[in-house]
Amino acid sequence: MKEDHMPEVMGKLVYQCIECKSEFDIFDFIYTCPKCNSLLKIENTEADCLKKKSGKQWATLFDARKSTNRLELSGIFRFHELILPILPLEDIIYLGEGDTPIVKTNKELSGWIGTECFVKNDGLNPSASFKDRGMASAISFLNHAIKVKNIDNVLAICASTGDTSASAALYLSYLPKEKVKSVVLLPKGKVTPQQLSQPLGSGAEVIEIPGVFDDCMRIVEQLAQEYNVFLLNSKNPVRILGQKSYAYEVAQQLGWNTKDLVVVVPIGNAGNITAVMQGFVDLYSLGIIKELPVILGVQSLHADPVVRWWKTGAYSPIKITPSVAQAAMIGDPVSFPRVKKLVEEHFDGKFYTIAVTEEEIMEGMLIANRHGHAVCTQGGESIAGLKKAISEGLISNAHRFVVDSTSSQLKFSTFQQMYFTDTIDPVYGIKTKNELKNNPISMDADSSAIARHLGLKRR
Questions:
Q1: Which domain holds residue 407?
Q2: What's the pLDDT at 4?
């Protein structure tokens, strides 16, 4: 790679309160404004220097880096200047995250949804979910901060419904054990066995508590407020920085053409949809893309506070009921204030939400996977949301669509198995369909019998 394509350490990053606009040192481990207790975002106070390049020049630069063999620039830090420009390349932790493919739906699936679309498979990240994008930026930043602040030890902690804990534990395990301790809080009995195995395998200390994700989040927020810990939930704006790379990649994969584009995102704790929206704003402000896409946020009817806000203009936390899209089981999304600000400032008329049933989520996952994809229940939630939005006339199918599948189907194979064997807990309210079930058939090791069963004819 030519030297002029290599990123340089530049800019000045600060925490900025989204409400009172107060600014704080980027190396302070704070997650809410000390003055008004609002959420923080990260601002580059020298961002104007980025406008010295034209949008076309930035696009050319990022395209040139896509072919690099430099590992540090192979993932999300291809967009170094838009994520953590203060970070030296040697402090980047790269575990293979980012650059996930977009896969076009086939004719049958497109017909079922009501439109052709692309599914961006973020289950192909190292820990098998999109969380690795934000964790790559957060842990790279922590790696840098340890050196800058000369920290001897730090406790890094997160609350999780599964994917965040897997990602945090994986990336933290790459740092020196004498410097960093990894801890995750999970709601007992509400994480799939596959997801629970991941932080345990990465060596994290896993603490299970009764309740739901909101209960875990409340505890880690208290710990982050009262003790010097490094919070790894999306309340930490350093996480949001890395997750913006999803938007950068989508735009790049579409040739930087976002005209008539709709991006479908499950809402969950609202950190990812915040990052996706902010990522497109970054590209638009630099002239790299000519227009902002429409954002369609999807929630389960079992946990839909953002949908209710979008419909009524009034927001309030809600009591949730269990969802197969476990990352959706959040009644008070931490990053909702960021979403609200982005809608008001940039996406007015370009932001829609829709709620789907648990049955629709499962069918979205099963039918997508039956037609060449590998989506999780959250991906099924997105696909079901797009189908419903089109059928109800919320969004015209005369657009281009990219659907966010946030995780690997393998993490949620338990729900698939329960669907196939009719053992799903009635609390989900799912009525199964025989045509979507698939179970193994036991037969003798007899080729003739198997041939008869398959309806084969001799040559």
A1: 102-125+240-426
A2: 64
